[in-house]
Amino acid sequence: MSKQHTISDYDEASKALREKNLRQALYDEGSVIMQDVLVNLHGDEHRARRSLETQVFRRDFFRYYETEVFPTTLKETLAPYIESGEMDLVDFGYRVMVNLTVDFTGIDRPLKTPEETADLMALTQLFGRTATMAHATVDRDALRAEAREALDRFDETYVVPSIASRTEKLQQLKAGEITEEDLPRDVLTVLLRNEDNIDMTRDMLTREMAFFTLAGAHTSIHTLTHAMHEMLTWTSAHPEDRKRIDEAPRFIQRCVFESIRLHPSSPIASRRSLCPMHIEQHDIDEGDSVIIDLQTANRSTDMFGSDASEFNPHRDIPKGQQGYGLSFGRGMHACLGLNLAAGVMPPEDKTVDHMGTVALISQVLFQAGVRPDPDKTAEKDTRTERDLWGYYPVRLGPV
Q1: What pLDDT, in 10s, does the model give residues 185-214?
Q2: For an engineered disulfide with 27, which of 34, 253, 268, 303 has Cβ 3.0 to 4.6 Å away?
Q3: In sequence order, which ranges of the chain are alpha helices (DSSP H)?
């Protein structure tokens, strides 16, 4: 009979995340969306697909999006909220991130209307809840049925026309009518160009599109809300740091990294052992479940100091470690979108040239005068056991 083992020591958790004989198991219950998508593959199959899709996520891609694409999207999305003087951070996060994530996924938006954005938001939210079904507090069979119906509609409405437009572009490239620079730079284009080299059915392709859409938006949105909550709380108690938010990109990144350390998008990683092994005093047999407690590991006092459970953007980070701890994973399943969401922290003697979308949004919101709404109360999402905000009201503009 298989057993369950929990690993919470920081160093051992890091080793377990890198262990090639531990198979991803976190999303098994959400297989209606997650079956055979990148994050659930293992071994050679995972390596082959990741090497293809990584072509999209290179450093120049993130810089291009951060400097040329994202600022326009952010400005357009934020404008009506500045006019009204209030917003729900969770709703705003979905609106600003969903357009970005469908871009690099390869999902066309032919209408570009508020209604279309709302539809993509609803699909992304549903796919996110389905992927993390292991932590759901609602009827899981009903959630699966809703997800199947939504996946069919997502395919018909968005994936089918997106495939058609990219297939036409690839045919034009083959005929010499366009150049490489004219091709869309997204995951779907890469997969279609290499369909003879990967074992991917049509259903798998649709799920891969749903996965990248939810992975890019769902986690970043909740990362943003946690980070804003921590920064608003911190600057209220430490007003001397309020100016740093406006003027020091490195400080904003430190705030975001510190929040991500405390609030990983998933509090645990779940693996299934492919063979017997020994980790942190655990004798693990083939088929055993291994729970890697990221939230506890990230709050290790040995690694991050006696106040490791508290938010402190001035924290001294041990040499060789990242300020966000293990939240983005390690090894084969390390997050592909790390640089997009969190940016790159340069050495102390270098300037920040890639902040990441979460830090960029945070900076713009503070510049817009963001502050907690005194007349409304923020609420956690009760549909999941994960520590996620479901509603976070704020005010904007002059006090």
Answers
A1: 899 999 999 987 788 999 999 999 999 998
A2: 34
A3: 10-18, 31-34, 43-53, 59-64, 70-84, 89-105, 114-131, 140-154, 160-174, 187-193, 202-237, 242-247, 249-262, 294-297, 301-304, 338-342, 357-367
Other beta carbons within 10 Å of 156: 11
120 band by pLDDT with thresholds 50, 70 and 90: very high
Give me the half-sphere count of Cα atoms (radius 13 Å) on the Cβ side of residue 58. 7
18-21: Cβ within 8 A, 24+ apart: 18/330, 18/331, 19/271, 19/277, 19/279, 19/331, 20/331, 20/332, 21/273, 21/274, 21/275, 21/277
Categorize the per-residue pLDDT at 24 as very low, low, confident or very high, splitting at 50, 70 and 90: very high
CATH of domain 4-395: 1.10.630.10
Annotate 237-260 with DSSP letters as a single string.
H-GGGHHHHHH-HHHHHHHHHHHH
SS3 391: strand
| List of residues 6+ apart from 91 with CB closer than 8 A | none
Note the helical H segments in 66-179.
70-84, 89-105, 114-131, 140-154, 160-174
- What would the pLDDT profile of 345-390 be if each residue is shown by its tens digit? 766 656 666 788 899 999 999 999 999 999 999 999 998 888 889 9
What percentage of the chain has pLDDT greater than the value 70? Answer: 98
Delimit the domains of the chain by residue range.
4-395
What is residue 392's predicted lDDT score, i.e. its pLDDT?
Answer: 97
Kindly state the percentage of the chain with pLDDT values over 90: 64
279 token code pair = 């980790």
Report angle CA 196, 199, 201 to the nearest 5 degrees: 100
Q: Which residue has the tokens 């018909």?
A: 156
83: left (phi over 0), alpha (psi -120 to 50) or beta: alpha
Q: Kindly report the backbone phi and psi dihedral angles of residue 49, in degrees, each rounded to the nearest multiple of 5, phi listed first.
A: -70, -40
Q: Compute the half-sphere exposure of residue 334: CA atoms within 13 Å on the CB side of its CA.
A: 15
Tokens of 53: 């899709």
Identify the three-state secondary structure at position 337: coil
pLDDT at 59: 66
